Amino acid sequence: MPRAWSAKDERKYEKIRKSQVEEGTSEERAEEIAARTVNRDRREEGRTKSGLRSTMGTGNPTTSLEERTRRELYNRAKQLHIEGRSNMTKAELVRAIRKRA
Q1: Roughly how many angstroms between the first and final C-alpha of the chain, as a whole number?
Q2: Which of 41, 71, 85, 87 has the fewest CB atoms nearer than 10 Å to its CB?
């Protein structure tokens, strides 16, 4: 188990691992599931460096452009090869994406 884990994280890991093994999951897969679960929870709680980074995604395609973050709109504009996107505001990105898409 990683050094950055707290005692609580280690207990959670062991509980999940044992539960998975009892359900018939292989030991190797149970360890992976437990570690991923603990690391996800640590990331969501902001206890990891990677949890501080923002997503490089384009946002949920079912949400309106206005509801997405500027970073998500920028990434979508990048996919669409929209020039000048780095200097655009969120509203300008929305207009440019609608025009291109």
Answers
A1: 47
A2: 87
What is the reported pTM? 0.50
Task: Give dist(CA 25, CA 92) in Å, integer.
Answer: 50
Q: What is the C-alpha to C-alpha distance for residues 28 and 20, in angstroms, rounded to an integer?
A: 10
Helices and strands in the chain: count of H runs, count of E runs: 4, 0
- pLDDT tens column, 52-87: 555 568 778 888 999 998 998 999 999 999 999 999
Tokens of 93: 């990105």
> Do both 72 and 48 map to the same domain?
no
> Token pair 């090869």 is at which residue?
81
